[in-house]
Design brief:
The structure holds two protein chains of two kinds.
Chain A lengths: L28 H6 L2 H23 L8 H14 L1 H33 L1 H14 L4 H12 L3 H25 L3 H9 L5 H11 L1 H26 L8 H10 L3 H29 L9
Chain B lengths: L21 E11 L4 E12 L4 E5 L6 H9 L6 E6 L2 E2 L7 E4 L12 H11 L5 H14 L15 H14 L4 E5 L7 H18 L3 E5 L2 H7 L2 E6 L4 E7 L11 H15 L5 H8 L8
Parallel strand pairs in B: 3-8, 3-9, 6-7, 7-8
Antiparallel strand pairs in B: 1-2, 1-4, 4-5, 9-10
Classes of the chains: A mainly alpha, B alpha/beta.
Amino acid sequence: MTTSATPRQEYEVVLEPLLDVSLERDLSLGQRLWQQGWLRKGVILVLLALAWEAVARYQGNDLLLPSFLQTAAALYQGLVSGELLAKVGVSLVVLLKGYLLGIVLAFGLTSLAVSTQFGRDLLGTLTSMFNPLPAIALLPLALLWFGLGDNSLIFVLVHSVLWALALNTYAGFLGVSETLRMAGRNYGLRGLRLVVHILVPAALPSILSGLKIGWAFAWRTLIAAELVFGATSGKGGLGWYIFQNRNELYTDKVFAGLAVVILIGLLVESLVFDTLERLTVRRWGMQR
Amino acid sequence: MNSPLQGHTVSKLSSVATPALLQVDNVSLEYRTAQRVVRATHQVSFEVDKADRYVLLGPSGCGKSTLLKAIGGFIEPVEGAIRLQGQTVNGPGPDRIVVFQEFDQLPPWKTVKENVMFPLLASGTLKRKEAQARAEHYLEKVGLANFADAYPHTLSGGMKARVAIARALAMQPKVLLMDEPFAALDALTRRKMQEELLLLWEEVRFTLLFVTHSIEEALVVGNRILLLSPHPGRVRAEIHSHQYDLQSLGGHDFQASARRIHRLLFEDDGQAEQVSALDFADIRIAY
């Protein structure tokens, strides 16, 4: 029944060089355009603006919901008169001070946490204590301690950035593979040099996401602080602008102020963080 | 040629006047889990001479990787001492470069060339310019000169292993420690890497300590093989294998040596059946 000889023949093929078949070909123009992130996001923004305009016109009440075009006009006026830019400047300076200080403190805490047991416990306890505490709830205290002025704002900004960033950075440090750590130690790296040369770059995806979250938290805290407590220093920022215009029922200007907050958020996200990611983690193949 | 070395832990080289490059003297190693302390190796001794290709071979659980890490300075022995050129090893150092099995040993944020330069700069061995020249030299040797500016994530597994070897060789360590460096590669690439490693050794004559759990790989790569028994690791035998290379695969002598090693590792006097039934799956026969 069983046949030992297979019915198929063995064969060998002599391979000719492939000349008439191209090994790669270009994607079509449409596909290439659609791969541009800014274009895709731009389309989403245009769609949102159209929807906004339609709803505002349908409702027809400028006081409650000014249309997209009215807001754009108010925004343009604010920018041209320089009033809005001055407010943005005031807000951004305070924001950057608090943000940078928060970053420095977060790195100090996490570096301590990776090197000592005490640091680990300190970071764990402090983050679980303070992370759930809304920064804005600390502002009355900060005003008492630091007085009216930038310092009390910086204090709450640091509070809003520090814990989120420290948690993310520490989680990133813990995720660095043992092999990479051992390789670093093998070459004589230890302590702070190990953190700088191995842990920080290896944990960069987590650190970047921590920086993003910290940035968003800082913005929220700042605008909220200015909205609730008005101008804490002599000249107000963007939150104060929104607050003042709401009191005077310039709803289009309120929307313009909110739009600026959103625009700055988008700009920082797409210019700063996106560039950072493209130059680092995506180029290194650590993130897609 | 090779008489059994019963209870004979250190190769007798009494005719050689110079002391061994690396001395592992009665070393016991333990590692801690959450519940208990586990003994990985028990009173292991051996000596490695200059330009040796010394292989640690044994089934999983014989502590060979732990032993390599101890020589690398990552683990401290609970008993005995490890001496490199007479100096007791305490802590990791760039005179003993480790090539790991895992592909993520290459920092992904550095290009191939920067990866090779990294230990040279981190340990302060060379200035940037000289480090660059040396990196290029060794990348040329492992055939990756064209990939100097590529990032590791764009390389295949075999190329990553080559970068790790180039990086280790560029440091010109006193002893090169390889922890199953080819285990994660496919069989064809592994064979090619073994061949290249032997060619490199012919050229550079570095001292190599190589951990594997493949009998064939041990016979091909090594000139001496230390057999370790599992749970805890103890020295079972030391065997010469300098006469074999990739051409000897499948030859009669080679097969006989492989069978002898298999017997020494698994047919533990009297309880042959039981032990081989337990541990046969641990051995990887690659060819």
